[in-house]
Q: What sequence folds into this?
């Protein structure tokens, strides 16, 4: 069964601090994505990757970095977390269909 | 420019009736893929159904079906015999071609909240 695992599932971070969100997939998929969802809104693409050691900017990359050290792992990094980055973050992997993780609720205070 | 648009923010229907959710998209690609996803109350995002642009026949999976109108760049989701558990937020999505591959980035609409009333 397709599996995308995100960690942590919930995090409270301090403004200006560094935050790393991790994602692991066991689907053998080349593509991985990080999306952001704000309350009552749809999903916006932050970064994505189609091969290890390479990442691409999505629609809202500012304030975020991404890292893809292996096919299975894809991280989202907030070097200097800000209040505006409070949101739910979803990781996904894809072959023909896209499979999502359960999300990480990030609160920046 | 917004690539996927869902204009219905919320729909309420009575249980066991049929509901249609609208979605329009923009693309310059001749070949693309369209999807509908459901986000449950727990936040989980679940794949429902897919339409390949080169297929004329509307996709059907269980009590979900699509109304694909390519000239109008429209992909409606139809749920027949709605159940209480169908209450959720439904997202339309389009997959671009990336680097010549069909496995490109996925663009989402803003979502439609469906409320099924007993």
A:
């Amino acid at each position: 069964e397709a599996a995308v695992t995100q960690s942590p599932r919930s995090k409270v971070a301090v403004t200006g601090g560094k935050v790393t969100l991790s994602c692991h997939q066991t689907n053998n998929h080349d593509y991985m994505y990080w999306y952001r969802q704000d309350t009552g809104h749809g999903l916006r693409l932050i970064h994505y990757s189609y091969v290890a050691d390479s990442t691409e900017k999505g629609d809202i990359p500012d304030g975020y970095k991404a890292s893809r050290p292996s096919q299975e792992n894809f991280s989202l990094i907030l070097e200097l977390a800000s209040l505006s980055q409070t949101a739910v973050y979803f990781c996904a992997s894809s072959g023909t269909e896209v499979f999502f993780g359960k999300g990480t609720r990030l609160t920046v205070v | 420019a917004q690539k996927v648009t869902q204009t219905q923010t919320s729909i309420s229907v009575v249980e066991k009736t049929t509901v249609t959710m609208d979605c329009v998209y923009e693309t310059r690609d001749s070949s693309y893929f369209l999807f509908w996803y459901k986000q449950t109350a727990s936040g989980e995002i679940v794949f429902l159904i897919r339409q390949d642009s080169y297929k004329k026949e509307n996709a059907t999976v269980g009590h979900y079906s699509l109304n694909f109108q390519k000239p109008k760049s429209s992909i409606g989701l139809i749920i027949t015999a709605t159940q209480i558990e169908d209450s959720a937020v439904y997202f339309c999505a389009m997959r671009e071609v990336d680097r010549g591959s069909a496995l490109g980035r996925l663009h989402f609409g803003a979502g439609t909240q469906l409320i099924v009333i007993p």
Notes: The radius of gyration of chain A is 13 Å. The mean pLDDT of chain A is 94. The interface with chain B takes residues 30-31, 33, 35, 41-45, 48, 50, 58, 88, 90, 92, 94-100, 102-103 of chain A (CB under 8 Å). Chain A is about 0% helix and 55% strand.
